[in-house]
Amino acid sequence: MFYSFSSNVRLRKTLYEKTDTVLNQEKQITILQEKIKNLESPPNGVKDHGWLSVKGSQLVNSRGEDIQLRGMSSHGLMWYPEYTNYRAIETTKKYGANVFRIAMYSDENKGYVYNQTDTKRMLFMALENVLGADMYAIVDWHTLKDSNPNTHRDKAAAFFDELSKKYSDEPGVIYEICNEPNGDTTWQDIKEYADFIIPIIRNNSPNAIVLVGTPNYCVDIKSAMKSPLNYNNIMYTYHLYTGTSKGGYEYVLTDALENNFPVFVSEWGLNRDRENGKINYEKATKFLEFLNEKRISWVNWSLANKDEVYSVIDSNNEKLSGWEKKDLSETGSFIFDALKH
Ligand code: IDC
């Protein structure tokens, strides 16, 4: 075939135009793909916020902006493992949650110390589900009956070593090294435990957030404030149950914040008032307003349908995900509304 000079130029021009069109189309496809990604995963998760750290008393994201985590805690992982399925966790996200706490009891009949193999398999599956949903995951070494965390310190150490090695590159994992220390456990005991466990975690995952329980079922922030731990990115946990907690959280938590002491409410719950058996929603609303205003992160107990007041799923409901309002318990309906940012 023979081309004149001018037809050659014309041909090249058309080719360039075509290339331009293809490039434009590619650009548009990228933009659309980006939009779809955001629809699948609204920008309040790990992909958006990345590694968290603690600045003063505030939890901040990878850009240094403050962030508040809100979400549900599992019930005991080995009692209600079915509620840690992917779609269950994703349902809490649809209601607004950006964190999920996996409560792994250490010392109770279904606890870690009695069946490490199965408990760990369940834990890693739950953890993958939370991370897969692009949410922050709190791995909670749920001490309770073992009131002093030093009781099973060596087992906790081995567990946290394995966990933090496996997830050393994962910004979504938050380590809660003990749930509610109680009985005669002092802050010094907890400190001794924390000084043993935290360096193990830090050795594998140097910047991860670590939550540390405080004495007397996580209400005694004051003792911890008098003698804080010597690491970055540590937060101290405070727990409240509306019916049984004596109150005074405003004073304790305000004092903590004013002294740059970072607090995380890793568990709170609605239970019946001792005196009249009622659920005090007014107290719960005030508590939540306080936490949200101060940007203190919170996690509610618990995502299960057990016939007990704090279960958020109605006890007659068998659905394992996709709950609508009618599937929730009375307290659950209140809590799911509160998850929305
Ligand atoms: C409770 C569960 C209950 C279970 C019990 C086992 O709701 O079904 O039989 O643990 O010990 C906490 C604890 C948390 C408790 C919860 C309610 O962190 O483990 O769960 N609670 O009692 N602190 C205050 C209240």
From TrEMBL:
Reaction it catalyzes: Endohydrolysis of (1->4)-beta-D-glucosidic linkages in cellulose, lichenin and cereal beta-D-glucans
Enzyme Commission code(s) on record: 3.2.1.4
Keywords per UniProt: Carbohydrate metabolism, Cellulose degradation, Glycosidase, Hydrolase, Polysaccharide degradation
Gene3D superfamilies with a match to the protein in the record: Glycosidases
Domain Glycoside hydrolase family: from-to ranges: 60-306
InterPro entries associated with the record: GH, Glyco_hydro_5, Glyco_hydro_5_CS
Superkingdom field: Bacteria
Top-tier EC class: hydrolase
Assigned protein family: Belongs to the glycosyl hydrolase 5 (cellulase A) family.
Protein name: cellulase
Organism: Clostridium malenominatum
